[in-house]
């Protein structure tokens, strides 16, 4: 998940690229400025608001009150709540206006805080000391919560840039009364404490990890919004409802189940309804398996569940149309797909029929002297 010692404007321990990493871990939730090389026709409509990124992809819009030119990647000191915080400029220019419109923030909003200055070396030193305390603070706060008997899990701690405030991110199944916990944390660490509850998906996005596909989690690298995922998405894609396979690191259904769902729904609209029972003179047949993109169906008779017959979508529609007219076909076998022709077509496509037979070595008698 990138370099652990990365800081805004600083130099990572592993990549010598001053805040950027080729793996993308240091640039989590980065926005590509596709208007960077375009100039506005008039300077009057341009805004002095920039987007600033903080730890673990947390972002906010801040007003550049002094009006100096800021570049993407620069470390800046911004107004905190209270005090000040240190972040990294992630977006400037006209694209900031588009992002604000997307998130429902207006330019005249009084809640937009100010940028004080560019971060100096002293600001970055204070920021590094505060970041170094986060892991120890998290472990101690977990012990305190356990001693108080609170059913909650503190997953992460984020110190403000000036080290005067700490935000504790936690997950809990229900409502938690953490008033006693806040008193203990304030007395132990001597900072202003803010408790912020996050969902299990947000927790996985903050902590990161590897998915079952072997890649970094989508929510911790590029996925910015969390859409609801239901078991219907797995059913439409003909996946077995196995919670162990369908659940992600957060324990919820994987977000990637929604990626190809629209493609499946578009194809399923053209296919016949699988809930319809096919009526034949041999018996009624029900669906057993469906290959969506190849448009192939496997049906079996109710009294012969192990005898599957492969049918095309056109054949299924033909049988359904006959049943609607009150007619029954003799059997499913007269519409079945010819397996031998299909296998031969595949072999011709890959050129297997043109391969020469393997060379067989003739049996030879063992060499040596023969005794008569």
Question: What report would you give on this structure?
Answer:
The structure is a single chain. By secondary structure, the chain is of the alpha+beta class. It has four domains: 1-31 and 45-120, no CATH class; 133-201, 2-Layer Sandwich (GMP Synthetase, Chain A, domain 3); 227-269, no CATH class; 278-354, no CATH class. Helix content is 27%, strand content 20%. The strands form three sheets. Strands 1-2-5-3-4 form a five-stranded mixed β-barrel. Strands 9-10-11-12 form a four-stranded antiparallel sheet, covered by helices on one side. Strand 1 (49-53) and strand 2 (59-63) form a beta hairpin. Helix 3 packs across helix 4 (179-189). The longest helix has 14 residues, at 134-147. It starts with 48 loop residues before the first strand and ends in a 22-residue tail after the last helix.
End-to-end distance, in Å? 78 Å
Mean pLDDT, rounded to whole units? Answer: 81
Number of helical segments with 4 or more residues? 11
Q: Biggest sheet, strands in spatial order?
A: 1-2-5-3-4
Given the C-alpha coordinates, what overall shape results?
A: elongated
Strand content: 15-25%
Number of DSSP-assigned strands: 12
The whole-angstrom Rg is 32 Å
Secondary-structure element order, N to C = EEEEHEHHEEHEHHHHHEEEEHH
* Main sheet record: 5 strands, mixed, barrel
Poorly predicted ranges: 11-25
Helix/strand-derived category reads alpha+beta
Helix percentage: 25-40%
Oligomerization status of the protein chains = single chain
């Amino acid at each position: 998940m990138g370099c652990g010692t990365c800081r805004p404007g600083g130099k990572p321990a592993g990549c010598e690229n001053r805040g950027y990493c080729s793996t993308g871990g240091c640039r989590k939730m980065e926005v590509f400025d596709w208007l960077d090389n375009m100039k506005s026709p008039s300077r009057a409509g341009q805004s002095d608001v920039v987007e600033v990124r903080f730890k673990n992809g947390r972002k906010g819009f801040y007003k550049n009150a002094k009006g100096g030119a800021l570049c993407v990647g620069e470390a800046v000191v911004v107004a905190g709540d209270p005090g000040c915080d240190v972040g990294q400029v992630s977006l400037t220019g006209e694209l900031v206006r588009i992002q604000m419109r997307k998130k429902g923030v207006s330019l005249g909003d009084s809640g937009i805080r100010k940028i004080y200055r560019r971060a100096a070396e002293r600001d970055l030193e204070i920021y590094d000391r505060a970041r170094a305390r986060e892991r120890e603070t998290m472990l101690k706060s977990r012990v305190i919560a356990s001693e108080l008997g609170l059913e909650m899990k503190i997953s992460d701690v984020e110190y403000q840039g000036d080290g005067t405030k700490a935000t504790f991110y936690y997950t809990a199944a229900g409502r938690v009364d953490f008033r006693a916990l806040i008193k203990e944390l304030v007395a132990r660490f001597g900072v202003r404490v803010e408790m912020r509850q996050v969902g299990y998906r947000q927790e996985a996005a903050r902590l990161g990890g590897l998915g079952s596909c072997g890649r970094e989690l989508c929510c911790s690298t590029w996925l910015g919004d969390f859409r609801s995922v239901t078991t219907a998405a797995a059913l439409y894609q003909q996946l077995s409802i196995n919670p162990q396979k369908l659940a992600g690191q957060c324990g919820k259904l994987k977000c990637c189940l929604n990626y190809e769902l629209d493609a499946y729904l578009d194809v399923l609209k053209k296919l016949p309804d699988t809930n319809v029972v096919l009526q034949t003179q041999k018996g009624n047949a029900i669906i057993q398996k469906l290959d969506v993109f190849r448009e192939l169906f496997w049906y079996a008779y109710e009294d012969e569940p192990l005898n599957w017959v492969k049918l095309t979508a056109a054949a299924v529609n033909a049988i359904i149309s006959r049943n609607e007219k009150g007619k029954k076909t003799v059997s499913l076998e007269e519409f079945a797909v010819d397996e031998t022709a299909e296998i031969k077509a595949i072999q011709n496509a890959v050129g297997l029929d043109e391969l020469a037979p393997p060379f067989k070595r003739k049996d030879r008698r063992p060499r040596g002297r023969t005794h008569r």
